[in-house]
Design brief:
The chain is α+β, with helices and mostly antiparallel strands and 334 residues long. 20% of the residues lie in helices and 33% in strands. It contains eight helices and 18 strands. It has helices at residues 3-19, 31-35, 85-94, 109-112, 239-247, 300-310, 319-325, 329-332; strands at residues 53-58, 61-68, 71-74, 97-101, 125-130, 136-146, 157-161, 168-172, 188-191, 197-204, 210-217, 223-227, 251-253, 256-259, 265-273, 278-284, 289-295, 313-316.
Length: 334
């Protein structure tokens, strides 16, 4: 989506908001009635095309999205961001409207998750928009979603607070923005049809290779996998454990990403598909993972998509997923 499209989308949002026609309700103090309908970031909509970066911060962590020509990438790694996410964040934040005044007391902020975002246990998120020179074009603390709390056709809202204000608000509109990368990017490394998995191997550098191979079907009609080696006096834990040890490799996602800078390989894990495609996960000593096609398959569409998405990148995985790539015999037998 081009910058021109951003402002067009913003204009469409403004028209939709104006046309909703919801009624102001009376308030004894007149405070809510006087401000209800006001935009929380009134200048952002007109500066939508100037936004060059979006930063979301929470509990000492942050994710930064940057404009790169006509596309959008993660700050630092330049990994591509999902189409439309950058623009949608601008438009939804610019469209937030005051609906109902909430607490202005610090001790109550955590109840609706609008506390200061720097706290180590903060659940609030600060979203900040900047231009190419680093000028602040608008920022707001995002709290809990308030699904259906606005009533009638108005529908969903979100608790929010401006960083320089004590007053929190139930706002009309919802901004979907998180520090988790999967909320911004396609975080799949492998995305295979697990029914086509036929073999997996696990081998630490200098160690023995563990092979889990598909050999047929179980009595229940599920794919059956067997180990290449079972120590004396031991037996496989169960068919399900063996099957998942191989098929789980067909769906691996990441929690962090960087340009591939190499490193000493401490572990190699391979996955073979029924069409002959073999991919290898190479795991460095500090647990960065890269994926490589080591044998071509017949399904060129899947292979080309895989290579186009993963070539030149290294990934960090969640602990449980990394463990799945480093299985040993002891994990699979009892």
């Amino acid at each position: 989506m081009t910058p021109r499209s951003v402002i067009a989308l913003a204009g469409a949002a403004a028209i939709a908001l104006a046309g909703a026609g919801w009624q102001l309700q009376s308030n004894s103090s007149g405070y809510v009635e006087a401000q209800r309908g006001e935009r929380l970031l009134p200048e952002l909509l007109g500066k939508a095309n100037d936004v060059a970066s979006i930063t979301v911060s929470q509990a000492g962590r942050d994710v930064r999205i940057e404009r790169a020509g006509t596309s959008y990438v993660l700050g630092g790694s330049s990994y591509p961001v999902r189409a439309g996410k950058f623009q949608t964040a601008i438009v939804t934040a610019a469209s937030l409207e005051k609906f109902d005044a909430k607490t202005a007391r610090d001790e109550k902020y955590p109840l609706i998750e609008v506390e200061p975002v720097a706290g180590k246990d903060a659940k609030s998120r600060l979203i900040k928009f900047e231009d190419v020179r680093g000028n602040n074009l608008g920022e707001i603390i995002l709290g809990k979603n308030a699904r259906g709390r606005l009533g009638g056709a108005v529908g969903d809202g979100q608790y929010v607070r401006l960083p320089d204000s004590k007053q929190s608000w139930l706002a009309r509109g919802v901004v979907d923005a998180d520090i988790k990368l999967e909320s911004w990017v396609d975080n799949a490394i492998t995305d295979m049809n697990v029914d086509h998995v036929v073999r997996a191997t696990f081998q630490p550098t200098g160690g023995e290779e563990l092979v889990v191979r598909r050999t047929g079907l179980t009595e229940g009609g599920q794919a059956k996998f067997e180990l290449n080696f079972i120590p004396d006096g031991r037996k496989p834990k169960n068919d399900l454990k063996l099957r998942y040890s191989a098929t789980d490799l067909g769906n691996v996602g990441f929690i962090d990403v960087r340009k591939d800078i190499g490193g000493d390989i401490a572990h190699r894990t391979t996955l073979m598909m029924a069409d002959g495609l073999i991919v290898e996960f190479r795991i460095t000593g500090d647990d960065w993972v890269s994926l490589h096609v080591v044998n071509d398959g017949k399904d060129k569409t899947t292979q080309n998509d895989l290579q186009g998405r993963t070539e030149g990148w290294q990934y960090k995985l969640a602990d449980y997923k990394l463990k799945q790539l480093k299985l040993s015999v002891s994990d699979l037998v009892e």
